[in-house]
Design a protein that fits this description.
EC number: 2.5.1.16
GO molecular function: spermidine synthase activity
Strand content: 5-15%
Strand order of the largest sheet: 7-6-5-8-9-11-10
Catalytic activity: S-adenosyl 3-(methylsulfanyl)propylamine + putrescine = S-methyl-5'-thioadenosine + spermidine + H(+)
Largest sheet: 7 strands, mixed
Structural class: alpha/beta
Function: Catalyzes the irreversible transfer of a propylamine group from the amino donor S-adenosylmethioninamine (decarboxy-AdoMet) to putrescine (1,4-diaminobutane) to yield spermidine.
Radius of gyration: 28 Å
Number of helices: 17
Shape: elongated
Order of helices and strands: HHHHHHHEEEEHEHEHHEHEHHEHEEHH
Subunit structure: Homodimer or homotetramer.
């Protein structure tokens, strides 16, 4: 500081900096609450683009409503701003925990009640967040009018606002959720809102009339959030135990999904984003049906590609063929392959297949990986989650199956898990139609898996399917005598006209949402 600067000027400079920093934090907190609500809606109501779209739409509308309401705040700007910060910190910070708890307490079939609470909280938090920036701008204008014209004021505030939004948008999926979880992330950012209120209380203490009550409100809000932070793990455990109904032995959020493994008297179950992926008591039916027909029809496959299937169960079935020389497993989430390779109990389920010297694990997006590779394979096993959103839906498009065709050997077979032909009949046949649009010949079939009901698969090749006459020894479900029944579709699962699922329309995602939405 030069000799010509006064202490007052220095204090004003610090005040400006702190207020602009508060804009950065406000933007970060506001976006975290929006993303947390969208993620929770997808996690608890179904992993669907519909959930994120509606949450974001309501939130943006609420922010506009809050901005409009700010015009009616004419007195005690700092006091009102401080109260808004405390409210948004407490309500927004505790929103994920509250939604988790309520969802666990509601009886089955009460999704509508949960949605009402969800959107009511999103509306309230969005309105409070919408009040913040206009109030900050007016405080800056009132206290530093000599330094700011309207142009400079708007420029400064929005720069910090958008910078905060950018950083948290990157940190939310890559750092915050994987390391803190949704509940702790919400509470931690609620504490940041309270911190903004505390330094507003200190900066403008001379002009605040109700300093004692505001100080008490800050202390109470901080105490509530600190308590919630300490109890976040217990709350999440309690909520998920009620949701899954069995003892949870592993739970972790990666950058891509929430992975939960439960273990009970009936067996071990894997859930991704709340959706059951397998139950140890009957997974052999699913994985034998997925892998064995294609492998046996080929006869002596040497090079096999598995897309998805990070649990290693499909690889286990593939390694039952002595002719196999190399298996390439492409799984997006490294946490999945690490978990099912290193956890003793889970590795036992897949026969320690992920430790096989014949296996090469690639953690990458399957679409992008296929675009960059030139290798061809005798058998390609496609075991992706159902097409419940556009990110997954692209893996069921004609463009993707054209890539699969390019990597399929002349006499090779590809097989795709294809949801339930009974519950999601149009979705199932949409996949068949889409594969056929690439010029491949399809052979649809289905199997009864008690944990899922009737489940569908599609074989694809450049030649007609040749029914195998023998399978590896020791199979518990698939056999030459049971295969004809798998290929037979009764009238309630018979083919219906469907359109091709393309990247430009993603028709399958909407169809899938409609059909499975009638079940929940």
């Amino acid at each position: 500081m030069s000799d010509s600067q006064s202490p007052a000027a220095s204090r004003v400079s610090v005040a400006e900096l702190l207020l602009l920093t508060s804009v950065f934090l406000i933007a970060a907190c506001g976006l975290v609450y929006e993303l947390a609500a969208g993620a929770l809606a997808s996690y608890l109501l179904g992993d669907s683009v519909l959930q994120f779209s509606t949450v974001i739409g309501v939130y943006l509308f609420a922010m506009g409503l809050g901005s409009w309401l700010s015009r009616f705040v004419e007195r005690q700007l700092v006091g009102v701003f401080l109260q808004v910060e405390l409210l948004v910190g407490v309500v927004g910070g505790l929103m994920p925990a509250a939604l988790f708890a309520v969802h666990s307490l509601l009886p089955p079939g009460e999704a509508a009640t949960f949605r009402v609470l969800l959107y009511a909280l999103v509306l309230l938090v969005g309105t409070l967040v919408g009040l913040e920036i206009p109030l900050v701008m007016r405080i800056l204008k009132r206290h530093f009018s000599a330094r700011y014209g309207l142009k400079d004021l708007v420029s400064q505030v929005l720069t910090f606002d958008y910078l905060g939004a950018l950083l948290v948008a990157l940190a939310f999926p890559l750092v915050l959720v994987p390391h803190l979880g949704l509940v702790r992330t919400g509470v931690a950012f609620g504490l940041l809102n309270v911190a903004v209120a505390v330094w507003a209380l200190w900066l403008f203490r001379a002009e605040l009339r109700a300093r004692v009550s505001l100080t008490a409100a800050c202390a109470l809000s901080a105490l509530m959030l600190f308590t919630a932070l300490l109890g976040a793990e217990q709350l999440t455990t309690w909520a998920e135990d009620r949701f899954y109904g069995e003892h949870i032995v592993f739970k972790q959020s990666s950058a891509y999904q929430r992975i939960v493994v439960t273990d009970g008297r009936a067996g071990t179950r894997l859930f991704l984003n709340g959706n059951l992926q397998f139950h140890s008591k009957d997974e052999y039916r699913y994985h034998e049906a997925l892998v064995q027909p294609a492998m046996a029809a080929h006869g002596a496959p040497k090079r096999v590609l598995v897309l998805g299937g990070g649990d290693g169960m499909a690889v286990r079935e593939i390694l039952k063929y002595p002719s196999v020389e190399q298996v390439t497993l492409v799984e997006l989430d490294p946490l999945m392959t690490t978990l099912f390779r290193d956890n003793a109990k889970l590795a036992a389920l897949n026969g320690h297949s992920l430790s096989s010297p014949k296996l090469r694990i690639v953690n990458a997006d399957a679409f992008g990986w296929l675009e960059q590779q030139q290798d061809v394979f005798d058998v390609i096993v496609i075991d992706f989650p159902d097409p419940s959103n556009f990110a997954l839906g692209k893996l069921y498009t004609a463009s993707f199956y054209e890539l699969v065709d390019q990597h399929l050997a002349a006499g090779g077979y590809a097989v795709v898990q294809t949801t339930s032909p009974l519950i999601a009949r149009r979705s199932f046949w949409t996949v068949v139609t889409t594969i056929e649009a690439t010029g491949l010949t399809t052979t649809p079939y289905h199997a009864h898996v008690p944990s899922f009901g009737e489940w569908g698969f599609v074989l694809a090749a450049r030649r007609p399917f040749r029914r195998p006459t023998q399978f590896p020894p020791g199979l518990r479900f698939v056999s030459p005598s049971s295969l004809p029944a798998l290929l037979d579709f009764p009238p309630d699962m018979a083919r219906v006209p469907t359109e091709v699922n393309r990247l430009s329309n993603q028709a399958l995602v909407q169809t899938f949402e409609e059909e499975w939405g009638q079940v929940h």
